[in-house]
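Researcher: I've been going back and forth with a colleague about how Catabolite control protein A might be arranged in three dimensions. Neither of us has a model we trust, so I'd like an independent prediction. The organism is Paenibacillus oryzae, in case that matters for your notes. Sequence below.
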Amino acid sequence: MTVTIYDVAREAGVSMATVSRVVNNNPNVKPATRKKVYEAIERLGYRPNAVARGLASKKTTTVGVVIPDISNAIFAEVARGIEDIANMYHYNIILCNADKKKDKEIRVINTLLEKQVDGLLFMGGAVTEDHVGAFKSANVPIVLCATSDDHNVIPSVDINHEAAAYDAVMKLIDQGHRKIAMISGTLQDPSNGYARFQGYKSALESAGIAYDESLVRIGNYRYESGVEAMKYFIELPERPTAVFSATDEMAIGAIHCIQDSGLQVPGDISIISVDNSRMASMVRPQLTAVAQPMYDIGAVSMRLLTKLMKKENVEQSKVVLPHEIVVRQSVGGI
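Model: Here is an independent structure prediction for Catabolite control protein A. You can compare it with whatever you and your colleague have in mind.
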């Protein structure tokens, strides 16, 4: 039979209210009494009913997290930051993979809200009117994680993606490169795509280099699209001397394509990217990349959400974390 709070109270020789205070970490319990209750819980194998507690308190101590691609190491690092802070503040996580598909994102958001989560962290691509509509229907706090909305209305934690791309391309320009190509993400993606593309164009403009649309290929963030884009660049009548990739995975595809073509990195073509995932130091030559503090983005997002859920004072609802270039071996001068 299911062990109840009444059974624990009788076993420990205390009231049910005392057991409830112990289970809910209420500090107003004597240490000796708390020890006695915990011993009774262990002997009986009691498990508090989270559903019943949630109905009573109108809180589930659960946070929903919408993640674009659970197989991507970048998002795994964000999720780890979220999880660590959630544990610190005694929240549980429901992690849902949305495959970077708008319809699935909306469906997952609504499913999590139906499960009465206390708050929601959204990692995804473009925050459309449909997303905003789903968020507005919620009566719980929402924080955008590693993305932001066009009007900066919804609390968010991210880096400045345009500035990160600008710095990456300027690194190539500082090394003497003038014919610089880009492997971009979809331009419908506000951060990994459009913002990084704008940063690329701004850097060229700053250096007085004319923008050439033939030097831009749109990828899908995956290794294979990096390979395909690089094949195209190599076959140009005048190939680029350097390539800026919007993500590490596409950059690594580009590196391998260059090597398979009998060329060298960075001897013939330099490569730089944004992300600085673990893969950046595994490839040879190691990849020079703009580092996003992915763990910190997750951790700060979760901390911001805890403040909103507890109705604490929030001085800054839009947090922009710093980025930096990690120099390795994939960029050389000409």
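Researcher: What would you highlight for our discussion?
Model: I'd start with this: The chain has three domains: 5-48, 60-159+294-321, 161-291. After that, consider the following. The chain has twelve helices and twelve strands.
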